Structures are given as C-alpha cells and as structure tokens.
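Priority: medium. Attachment 1 of 2:
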C-alpha cells in the first residue's frame, strides 16, 4: 500500500475538515438532497428502509448523516482523522448514533465483519486512488464488506467527458451567508494524461475581513469502462451506470451487485 498517498490525503482532509461545508451553497440542503437520491436507488434495488450501509469515504458526513436522518443504519469510515472528528461532532449535534472508523478504503480490516447491505463511496473519492492496482485492492475490500446480493454505489466525475478537454478551472461560484460573500473555485493542474493536482480555494467575507483557504490533493481520471472492468474482476456483477437525469445525484453513479461468494 502506498502510505505516502494515505498521508497526503489525510493531511489534505484534516486541514479541510473544519471548512469543508463551505464548498456547498447550503450544506444541509445538499445533505438532504444527496441522501434522498441514494435512498431512491436503495428503494429501486429492493433493499428496503432497514438497509445497513457502510460509507467507506465518509469525510465530514455529507451522505452518512443524511442517510442516518432517513432511518438507515449507517457506519462511516475515512482515511482522515480530522474529517472523522468533524463527522462525529455533527452526528452528536443531530442526535445520531453512527459508528465511525479510521480506515483507508484499500484496507477495511478494522471495520466490523462483512454483511452490509450496501457500501457507498461518493463525491469522486475513488479517483484519489492513483493506479488500477489501488482501485482493484479497494474494490476487493469493499466486496468483502458486503453480503452476497448487496450493492456497491460510487459516484465519480464524468471523466469520459472531461478527459478530451482537460479543463483547468471549475467555478468560481459566488454564495452569500447572512449578507457576507463567499467565493469558491477549483484549479486542476494536469501532471500527465490522467493525473492532476486538485487545488481547492475559497474566500469568505467575515466580520473581521476576508479569510482564505487553499488545499491540494491528487486525482487520477478514471473512465467508466475501467471501473466496470475492475469491479467485475473483484466479485461484482450486474454493473451499470446512471447519470444525474436518472439518479438525481449530481455525478455519474456506478451500481454493482456483490456476486455470491
């Protein structure tokens, strides 16, 4: 396992944890909207409302908290201790009993034994893994946490559409918080045909002046067929993709069923 990658990601999200919600125009509304979209997928997959869910890249809890508020039995894990601390705090504020674990998705051994009805990995978390070997290792670990017939759901940026253009900027977006302005944007510094450094910036107007944040992390653009092939090689079947118009989620989503062991 590439521990340099683990440390780099952890440092980025540790530093970002306290301010992560600022990338959303309204974090609470986004939390509810994303949870509703994921819950609709669960319903279509006939998993019912008592689904046990592992969010293996939970961050500060955007999907974990939203699903728990809908009544799902959710467990969260993440590589960032800072993000987990924030998620625990947010869960406590909402009266939600959610177990959280520190774990790289390439090694989920510290989590409870397998048997989850669903595992989710949202918000473009998979492309933080910078090689097919890392993705395959994560896929195998995720399969090990699912019961036979359980489902894996992940969302990624639409790299099939992005790669021919290789854009370098996303945004800026201008938001308002109680009369104060906030500017959020991203820069993508491409290192080669697939890898890029992601730079997150936001500037907030506060009562004492403007406050700035900058953080960076690495991504590797991965295509849909590549993810499909990796999942198929690691014990998943019935692999299909849904796009925002169908799923209601803001990124393309892959849905895969855990084959019988």
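Attachment 2 of 2:
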């Amino acid at each position: 396992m590439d521990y340099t990658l683990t440390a780099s990601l952890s440092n980025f999200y540790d530093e970002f944890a306290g301010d992560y919600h600022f990338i959303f125009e309204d974090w609470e509304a986004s939390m509810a909207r994303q949870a509703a979209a994921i819950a609709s997928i669960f319903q279509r997959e006939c998993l019912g409302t008592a689904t046990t869910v592992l969010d293996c890249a939970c961050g500060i809890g955007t999907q974990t908290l939203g699903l728990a508020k809908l009544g799902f039995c959710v467990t969260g894990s993440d590589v960032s201790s800072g993000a987990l601390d924030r998620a625990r705090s947010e869960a406590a504020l909402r009266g939600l009993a959610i177990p959280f674990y520190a774990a790289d998705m390439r090694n989920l051994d510290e989590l409870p034994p397998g048997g989850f009805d669903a595992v989710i990995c949202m918000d473009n978390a998979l492309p933080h893994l910078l090689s097919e070997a890392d993705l395959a290792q994560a896929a195998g670990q995720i399969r090990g946490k699912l019961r036979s017939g359980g489902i894996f759901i992940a969302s990624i940026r639409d790299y099939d559409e992005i790669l021919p253009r290789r854009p370098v900027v996303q945004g800026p977006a201008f938001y308002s918080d109680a009369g104060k302005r906030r500017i959020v944007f991203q820069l993508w510094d491409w290192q080669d045909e697939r890898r890029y450094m992601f730079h997150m910036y936001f500037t907030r107007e506060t009562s004492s002046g403007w406050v700035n944040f900058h953080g960076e992390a690495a991504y590797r653009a991965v295509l849909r067929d590549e993810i499909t092939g990796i999942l198929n090689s690691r014990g998943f079947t019935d692999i299909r993709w849904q796009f925002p118009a169908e799923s209601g989620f803001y990124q393309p989503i892959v849905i895969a069923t855990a084959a019988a062991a």
